[in-house]
Design brief:
Elements: E1 2-3, E2 9-10, H1 13-27, H2 53-62, H3 76-82, H4 84-100, E3 109-116, E4 128-133, H5 136-152, H6 168-184, E5 189-194, H7 205-214, H8 219-229, E6 233-238, E7 241-242, E8 246-247, H9 259-270, E9 281-284, E10 287-292, H10 295-303, E11 314-318, E12 328-329, E13 332-333, E14 335-336, E15 339-342, E16 345-348, H11 354-370, H12 372-375, H13 382-398, H14 408-426, H15 436-443, H16 448-465, H17 471-477, H18 493-504, H19 514-521
Parallel strand pairs: 3-6, 11-14
Antiparallel strand pairs: 1-2, 3-4, 5-10, 5-11, 6-7, 6-8, 9-10, 12-13, 15-16
Domain Reverse transcriptase: 96-347
Protein name: ribonuclease H
Organism: Hemibagrus guttatus
């Protein structure tokens, strides 16, 4: 079943298929409104080397096994099993594609599978993300092209998405430390969390070619990528079967190996006017947060560059001295909030992390419920249950906590929730008067507080070993004028780190040796 735009529920197979086709056909052929590019950009004409066997081997090694196949029904395992014969054949094939700038017509077909976003009405098509299943041979070709483009294009350091050695943790950590520094200095920090509606699906193709050329990509590669997107066709595979085939003329391929880096190139060029040579504009793909010391500067940066979604863009002021208004976007006020879920981690304007702890507990229970059929099965051993818990539930509770300094009460809140889950899993209650240590030992699960401490120290060691230009180190070392407020001081990130290092008998200097540091902070499960 699914809903039409007017809210009516469709039940017949034919009407459901037609609705899915209408939704994705409109989504993938409607461009975002953008200013036409009037300025020209010089193309880079240079000789392109032939594809080498070692490039194909690396691309093949990077492909994950056990994934869904594309329209040709050829899994990547076929190429891996053929070994060197596959490498020779693929190298020859890719060189022919590179020389002719034309790929096989079968590679242009894909199957679109709607994946529910786990929020909103399950019958609404807009609450589903379309993932394309494409030919694995084409994905290998994309991997080879991507590796070459990464050597040519330099993406700004403020981009954390789809970049090597960067993750959501880097962006979350940078934002939290920045907010902490301004809070300690009793200075205002204005943050706007920008949302670009359907940015990935609606990137105009002409905009993509423009951004590639402006980034210095050789014209040969531009034409190769253009060919990947020409005459693209797809079908939607829904619960009642496959729809009719339709063209895809706008946006990047969801599920493609090359698309994430192409999107990073587009965002890098489009945000050039918004960014400054400071760590206060951070991007993770199309999730952008713009920070500045004054509201006027934030509005000025936001006026330039990309068109944003007014309904989903939100504003937050850190250490606000007196109640004031919000920023304006396209003549309308942006919603002002006291907390925001940034890359899955809740940040609060007062710098506290109490809301985030509650979210982690909730995420843990959500994960526990998903595998409760296994965890509550009396036929399954406690050791297996503990392994399932450590694999599925605990990572959800630990996400992002390496970037915060918890109080004892908050740490206890996490451990209480964990013990409830373990007791449910083992079929015991508090009335059975079984000690917590016995519960943990039976399930082979250590204290969650120890795991949080280990994760925090592991992340701190990672930051200390990075180069001095790394944004995490720059944030930690940043000095701002101003004094901390009177009374009991707010807890800082380094307060927690110093306590953690004292407990394990480590010092900041020990973090320089990665192996020794990991050995010192490790707290294994029983």
């Amino acid at each position: 079943m699914c809903r039409k735009l007017d809210g009516r529920v469709l039940t017949s197979e034919e009407s459901v298929q037609r609705r899915w086709k209408e939704y994705f056909e409109e989504l993938m052929n409607e461009e975002n409104e953008r200013k036409k590019r009037v300025e020209g950009v010089n193309s880079v004409e240079q000789k392109v080397d032939k594809i080498r066997k070692d490039e194909v081997r690396k691309a093949l090694k990077r492909m994950k096994s056990g994934k869904a196949v594309g329209p040709d029904d050829i899994p990547v395992e076929v190429w891996k099993c053929l070994g060197e014969a596959a490498v020779e054949f693929l190298t020859s094939l890719f060189n022919r594609v590179l020389e002719s700038e034309r790929m096989p017509e079968e590679w242009r077909r894909s199957v679109l599978v709607p994946i529910f976003k786990n929020k909103g009405d399950v019958h609404s098509c807009s609450n589903y993300r379309g993932i394309k299943l494409m030919s694995y041979t084409m994905k290998l070709w994309e991997r080879v092209v991507e590796a070459r483009l990464r050597k040519v294009v330099e993406i700004c350091e403020q981009q954390y998405g789809f970049m090597p050695r960067k993750s959501t943790t880097d962006a979350i950590f940078a934002l939290r430390i920045l907010m902490e520094k301004y809070r300690d200095g009793q200075r205002e920090l204005h943050c706007v969390f920008v949302d670009l509606e359907k940015a990935y699906d609606r990137v105009p193709r002409e905009e993509l070619w423009y951004c590639m050329r402006k980034s210095g990509v050789a014209e040969k590669y531009v034409r190769v990528v253009q060919d990947m997107y020409e005459r693209s066709r797809t079908v939607v595979r829904c619960a009642v079967g496959q729809t009719e085939e339709f063209k895809v003329e706008v946006g990047l391929h969801q599920g493609s190996a090359l698309s994430p880096f192409l999107f990073a190139i587009v965002m890098d060029q489009l945000s050039e006017e918004v960014r400054q040579e400071s760590p206060w504009t951070m991007m993770f793909a199309d999730d952008i947060v713009i920070c500045s010391e004054s509201r006027e500067q934030v509005e000025e940066r936001k006026r330039r560059g990309m068109k944003v979604s007014r309904s989903k863009t939100e504003y937050m002021c850190v250490n606000e001295r007196e109640a004031s208004g919000t920023v304006r976007l396209q003549g309308e006020e942006v919603k002002k909030v006291q907390e925001f879920k940034y890359l899955g981690s809740t940040v609060q304007s007062n710098g506290e992390c109490g809301k985030e702890v509650k979210k982690r507990v909730q995420a843990g229970w959500n994960g526990w419920r998903k595998v409760s059929g296994v965890l509550c099965d009396r036929k399954i051993s406690a050791r297996i249950k503990g392994k399932v818990y450590r694999t599925v539930v605990r990572p959800a509770m630990l996400y992002g906590l390496e970037t915060v300094s918890l109080r004892k009460r908050q740490e206890s809140e996490l451990e209480v929730a964990e013990l409830k889950m373990l007791r449910f899993s083992l079929g015991v209650t508090r009335l059975d008067r079984i000690r917590n240590e016995y519960i943990r030992g039976t399930a082979h699960v250590g204290r969650l507080g120890d795991r949080v401490r280990e994760a925090r120290l592991r992340w701190f060691g990672h930051v200390q070993r990075r180069e001095s230009e790394y944004i995490g180190r720059r944030m930690l070392d940043m000095k701002l004028p101003g004094r901390r407020q009177r009374g009991r001081p707010k807890r800082r990130y380094m307060d927690g780190i110093n306590e953690d290092m004292k407990l394990v008998g480590a010092s900041v200097e020990d973090a320089e040796d990665g192996d020794r540091w990991r050995e010192m902070i490790r707290r294994g499960d029983p």
